[in-house]
Amino acid sequence: MPTPLTPEQEARQQIDRMLEEAGWRVQPREQMNRTAARGVAVCEFPTQTGPVDYLLFADGRPIGVVEAKRAGTPLSGVEPQAWRYASSLPDGLRQLAWHDPLPFRYESTGIETFFADDRDPDARSRRVSTFHRPETLVAWASDPPLVGVRTPQGPVGEAGHAYGAATLRSRLRAMPPLAEGTLWPAQVRAIRNLEQSLAEDRPRALIQMATGSGKTYTAVNAIYRLIKYAGAKRVLFMVDRTNLGKQAFNEFAQFTTPDDGRKLSELYAIQHMQSNVLDPAAKVVITTVQRLYSMLSGEPDLPPELEQLPLAEVETILGDQPRAVRYNPHVPMETFDFIVIDECHRSIYSVWRQVLEYFDAYLIGLTATPAKQTFAFFSQNLVMEYTDAQAVIDGVRQRGGTVGLGSQLYADSLGAAGTPHGTYVGMVLHDVSVITSELGGSVPGLPDSASTWLSTWYPDGDPVLRLASAGER
Question: How far is CA 201 from CA 194, 249, 362, in A?
Fold first, then answer.
């Protein structure tokens, strides 16, 4: 009968498996060959302060450390030990290392894992689902320093690296001022508050804005800035079903950038996923959580009907049990830097939670009607609250959501870049509920030009309308 594994051995066995899945070749110290693969993890490597559980080599050069502990060990107390090993390479390896001290450190029990990039401002560990791939750490280690007016202010990282390495978190502290342009005050506040939250390295943020107040337009503006100024590799915009994805794609593609006037689609690749194949060039990816789960599960594709139904109906078909997620090397956890969750069903916080938490990404929620579980999932970090009541006071919404038949309607151009305030939309020949029920098509009862305008700027079928003022009639 084989000897049972000790808790420490069980943890090492699980960590070995996780490293190998993520592209690291695990080697014992006596068989070390640091160039045997793109990424090599050498066990029990001696440092000046004792043996580190795993020393990570990428392209043959030291790049990080892993400190392993038995299940149940509080990892917060392991950070100083991992940092000590990262700072005490043998003299013969210091010149070879990507950085000295080593920038990347992990603490893991095989069940939970924490990661830190000690080049970050106020560096601290964050929870991750597994290990990053070797090529990812190489790309990060190769980031140039920030220079010029965008150099952020603040203390050095805890490992003593010179401040200013162009990590994502450094860049989030160095965002340039927001050009308000066509944004209205609530949208400006939402973007500024979100960027402040990101600069503070808060991993989750919730934006509550009333229906019709331009949530998607706000998100597009914020995402453009995260790509251009924060250097986001890729942003996921997650929707409830495929027709909402089409509408979101149109809004992203038609977005006029405020600095040079070109369309977003002229600058960056935007992908609305119609299959389980991710476009590696895409900067913005639009999809549903059910397709994301299908991709992580290694399925060749997702039946189209599962994206055409609201998420609540999908769960009726598939069941409402939590979805377990396993590692997929084709969709590693670092695939997205930011995930924006647009009005998804509350089950994303229970049934689909592991899909979101698989990724090493900031999570940003957009909603008009948050529930208790919404606040809890986003760690009570409500960065913007713009209620229906305030929208009525501001004239953004008609109280009750309806306007009398025969009323002349004008648009407050909250989502229409370059469209003048007070643009004539048309006369209501049907209840406004007809408009809100039309998802991007023509709107019965309105002139063709007005229908086109509505479907172009408000493809989600929820235009911002108000009664014409006396001076406009």
Answer: 11, 28, 9
Please report, for residues 120, 176, 303, 441, the alpha-carbon distance to residue 143 in angstroms, rounded to integers and kept in the order given.
12, 19, 40, 45
Q: What is the separation of C-alpha 419 from the centre of its chain, rounded to a whole number of angstroms?
A: 30
DSSP secondary structure letter of residue 181: T
Q: How far is CA 448 from CA 91, 416, 428, 441, 445, in A?
A: 75, 18, 13, 11, 9
Lookup: tokens for 235 = 């942003």
Mean pLDDT, rounded, for 343-365: 87
Q: Which residues contact 97 (CB under 8 A, 6 or more apart)?
A: 61, 62, 63, 89
**Rounded Cα gap, residues 309 and 291, in angstroms:** 12
Type of residue at 249: F
Cis bond before residue 329 (omega within 30° of 0) = no
How many CB atoms neighbour CB 48 within 10 A?
Answer: 11
**Which residue ranges does the chain devote to CATH 3.40.50.300?**
183-390
Looking at the chain, the domain(s) classified CATH 3.90.1570 span 7-141
Helix (H), strand (E) at residue 339: strand 338-342
Give the tens place of pLDDT for each residue, 253-281. 999 999 889 999 999 999 999 999 999 99
Task: Give 466's strand partners.
Answer: 410
Least confident of 90-104, 162-176, 439-453: 439-453
pLDDT of residue 418: 40
Sorted by sequence, the CB contacts under 8 Å of residue 405 that are 6+ apart come out as 428, 429, 430, 431
Query: Above 60 in pLDDT, residue 239?
Result: yes
**Residue 433 in this model has a pLDDT that exceeds 50:** no
Domain covering 7-141 in this structure, CATH number? 3.90.1570
CA distances from 186 to 35, 148, 177, 180, 189 (A): 54, 31, 16, 11, 5
CATH code for the structural domain at 183-390: 3.40.50.300
| Nearest-angstrom CA–CA distance, 224 and 173 | 16
Q: Are 111 and 130 in contact (CB under 8 A)?
A: no
Confidence (pLDDT) at 211 = 80
Measured CA to CA in angstroms, residue 147 lies from 47, 170, 242, 273 at distances of: 34, 12, 42, 37
Beta bridge partners of residue 465, listed in sequence order: 411
